[in-house]
Design a protein that fits this description.
Layout (H helix, E strand, L loop, with lengths): L1 H24 L2 E5 L4 E3 L12 E8 L7 E6 L2 E7 L3 E3 L5 E3 L8 E11 L4 E12 L3 E6 L10 E11 L4 E7 L2 E3 L3 E3 L3 E2 L5 E10 L8 E8 L4 E8 L3 H47 L7 H5 L2 H20 L1
Parallel strand pairs: 1-9
Antiparallel strand pairs: 2-7, 3-4, 3-8, 4-5, 6-7, 8-9, 10-11, 11-16, 12-13, 12-17, 14-16, 15-16, 17-18
C-alpha cells in the first residue's frame, strides 16, 4: 500500500516538473495595451532548402488560425490574417493596437510542403499585455418621472491587479454617503479585475454645476485614481431643445406663409393689369363673314345675277 502511494506521488511530481519546465522554457513577451508588438518565430529557418512552406500562427484557445501564409519559391502568397495582424519577414507575427484579449500563448508552425515528405516544426511563446489602471465617470441614462430631478452616475475602474476596491464620492469637496452603492469586482481576464460604483442623487441634494468626484481606491499598489464630473440640468436642456424646435417650426411656417402670400399677390396683380388693359383698348369686331368678303367676289355674283335676268327676258 505504501509503495503505491509513493508511486502516485512520484507520478504527480513528474507531471508537475514537466509542466513547470515547459512553462519556464517558453519565452514570454510583454507589451503595453494599445502598442504594436512583433512575435518572433524560431522555426523560420527550419527548412532552408524547401521550395514551399506553409506558416501558421495560432493563439491557444481559438478554433482557427490567427494568421497564416504560403511561401513559394521565396515569394509570400495567400496571406490570411485577422484584423490588426500581419506576417512580416522571417515569419514574424505583428499585432497592432494591442488589446487585453490578445494576451495568451501563441504557436508558430512551419510546414514543409515541397519537396516531400511533409514535415513541420512548432514553437511556442507567451504574450502578456500590460495596462495601467484607468477610471471613467459616466452618466447613466435615466427614464421615468424622476429623469429630470434625479441623476445616476457610474464610476468604472479597469485593469486592476487587486480585487480589494472601494469607491468614495464627493460633491463640491464634501463626502457623499447617501445613494452610494458598488458591485463586487470581477476578473475580466486572467490578469486584471474591473469594478464599478454607482451614485444616485435626487433634488434637492444636487444643483446645476455641482462638481461630483469619484475616487477609486485599490490596495494592491496603494494607488488612488480620481475623476471629476460637472452636473447639468437635463430638464433645462430638454426645455431648451424643445424651444429650439418650436422656433424652427414657427420660422418654417412663417416662411411658407410669406412665399404663398407673395405668389397669390402676384397672381391677383397680373389679373388686375389684364383687366385694366382690356377696359382701355378700342372695340374690335372679328366676324368670319366679313373677313372672307371681298369686292371681287361681290362683282362676280352681281354679274351672274344680271346675266341670268337677261336670259329670262330673252326667253
Amino acid at each position: 500500500m505504501g509503495s503505491q502511494v509513493k508511486k502516485s506521488l512520484f507520478f504527480i511530481y513528474a507531471v508537475f516538473r514537466s509542466f513547470t519546465s515547459f512553462t519556464d522554457a517558453v519565452p514570454t513577451i510583454r507589451a503595453n495595451l494599445g502598442s504594436t508588438v512583433n512575435l518572433q518565430c524560431s522555426s523560420a529557418t527550419a527548412f532552408p532548402k524547401a521550395s514551399q512552406v506553409v506558416v501558421q500562427w495560432k493563439r491557444v484557445g481559438t478554433s482557427k488560425a490567427t494568421c497564416g501564409h504560403i511561401v513559394d519559391q521565396g515569394n509570400i502568397t495567400k496571406q490570411n490574417c485577422k484584423e490588426r495582424m500581419a506576417i512580416l519577414e522571417n515569419h514574424q507575427l505583428q499585432l497592432n493596437d494591442l488589446q487585453i484579449s490578445d494576451a495568451g500563448q501563441y504557436n508558430c508552425t512551419v510546414s514543409r510542403q515541397i519537396p516531400p515528405p511533409t514535415e513541420e516544426k512548432t514553437d511556442y511563446l507567451i504574450l502578456r499585455v500590460e495596462a495601467s489602471p484607468v477610471i471613467r465617470l459616466e452618466y447613466l441614462n435615466t427614464s421615468g418621472n424622476n429623469s429630470g430631478t434625479c441623476k445616476q452616475l457610474i464610476c468604472k475602474l479597469k485593469f486592476l491587479n487587486s480585487s480589494e476596491v472601494n469607491f468614495t464620492w464627493t460633491r463640491n469637496g464634501e463626502r457623499i454617503y447617501k445613494g452610494v452603492k458598488s458591485e463586487d469586482p470581477v476578473q475580466s481576464d486572467d490578469t486584471y479585475f474591473s469594478a464599478a460604483g454607482y451614485l444616485t442623487l435626487c433634488k434637492p441634494d444636487w444643483k446645476e454645476s455641482d462638481v461630483i468626484q469619484c475616487t477609486g481606491n485599490y490596495y494592491n499598489d496603494s494607488i488612488i485614481l480620481k475623476e471629476d464630473s460637472i452636473l447639468h440640468n437635463i430638464t433645462d436642456k430638454n426645455c431648451c431643445n424643445l424651444n429650439f424646435i418650436i422656433i424652427i417650426v414657427t420660422s418654417a411656417c412663417l416662411l411658407t406663409s410669406i412665399v404663398v402670400g407673395s405668389s397669390l399677390f402676384l397672381c391677383f396683380w397680373k389679373r388686375a393689369r389684364l383687366r385694366a388693359n382690356d377696359n382701355n383698348s378700342p372695340i374690335v369686331f372679328n366676324n368670319k363673314v366679313y373677313e372672307n368678303f371681298s369686292f371681287s367676289t361681290a362683282r362676280t355674283q352681281r354679274a351672274e345675277t344680271d346675266q341670268s335676268s337677261h336670259c329670262i327676258y330673252e326667253n
